[in-house]
Amino acid sequence: MGVKRVNLDPNFHPKKRGKAMQNDDWLSGLPDDVLIDILSSLSLREAARTSVLSSRWTNLWRHSSCLNFDGDELCNDERREYIDWVNSVLRSHKAPRLDEFRICFDLDESCRKAVTSWLEFAFARRVQRLELTLVEYDFAELFRRSTSKAPSFNYKSLKSLCLSYVNVSGEDIELFLHNCPFLEQLIVRDSYKMSKVEVCGSSLALKRLEIVDCYPIGTPVKISAPNLTSLKVKTLTALLLENVPMLVEFNLIRVRDGVNMQKLVHGLHCYISELEVLTLDLFSTYKEYELYNFPQMPKLKKLGIRFTMARGDKSLMRLTSYLRASPHLQEFEVTVIGATLSRKKREVENVITHSPHQHLKVLKFFEYFGRPSDFELVRYILMNCMALQKIVIDPCYEIGIGRRNARNYAKRQLKAVVPPHIQLLIL
Prior knowledge:
This protein is of the alpha/beta class. The protein has helices at 32-39, 44-49, 79-92, 112-124, 139-147, 170-179, 261-264, 320-324, 372-384, 403-415; strands at residues 66-70, 100-104, 129-137, 160-166, 185-189, 198-200, 208-212, 221-224, 230-234, 239-241, 249-256, 265-266, 277-284, 302-309, 331-338, 362-368, 390-395, 423-426. The strands form two sheets. The chain has a 14-stranded parallel sheet with strand order 1-2-3-4-5-7-9-11-13-14-15-16-17-18, with helices on one face. A four-stranded parallel sheet has the order 6-8-10-12. α5 crosses α6. The relative contact order is 0.05.
């Protein structure tokens, strides 16, 4: 595999070898463009610290193609310090192009001038991946204004756009897609002005789409994207899938009792047979939950189910219908969230013993507490999955009891039933 070349400032002339090679400093002996590629994988603060190594390293980090301004080390009331830090880096930055530009801090509309100037900086350098995590910031207004001006911004370079706590509407999403013809990934989280979302277009390059925790979406979300391979949606009224022939990964979060899955995801039956990865978040209310009848999924390789119990210890055996609908499944990941933590004994439901599964190799059970429902699901897997190689258990523990006790309980409960040829890993 060849070394990735980095676009440098025309006035910056890479050296083939550093003098430090004479002192057995093999890292400094690498070409400058290789070192810059390495520095681009570090955080900005880490990359800047390399400037003290020698005079040769002083300016290398300024040519990094990835600018990740993660403000985790600062408190939310240190906005001025964060803004000064970003401005300082941008003033000294030399790279003519950006692969990645990330702003992550508690910035609201009062910081509009600073944020606007940063976005202008990024788009002027033809940024490919842009991520903003702010506080109810209206990024779309800037986008709308800039697209109406002369082409001072180059949106056509953008391949990935991730917006968290940034308010956008369905109309804004359509505008993004129209002005970013090469956009392959669009992620929108925690937007509070979302409505009438339509992601449609025969020429869309979009491959990955996430719409999570966006409100209020009172109308169905319509998706028609021929190149879409991965879709993640949460808390929707309805989802209309029309032209998604490449879809292989589907993540549907927060499905409540009484919701008809086929009605929620209209058109899913046309594509579900092609899915390779399926993740569902199911929620059980006080009434007995009903299983959502999925058709056969012959290509499914990985299934993840997060099941939340409203109360008590509901049996998990109904979830095994998903396994029987996935004959070539290789990995099953289940997470059980209980409103109460209790190992109160109850009558264990009859386990279906004549439903062999020939391909399941890995079971991952998160929040395992050792309830009868937990244990009977593991027992079902052991009795029916002939190719099982590994069981991973992440125990759930009560406050005051401790993780060690939870691990010991899971070990005692499962070690007696898991045969020695199957690896049992308790985290």
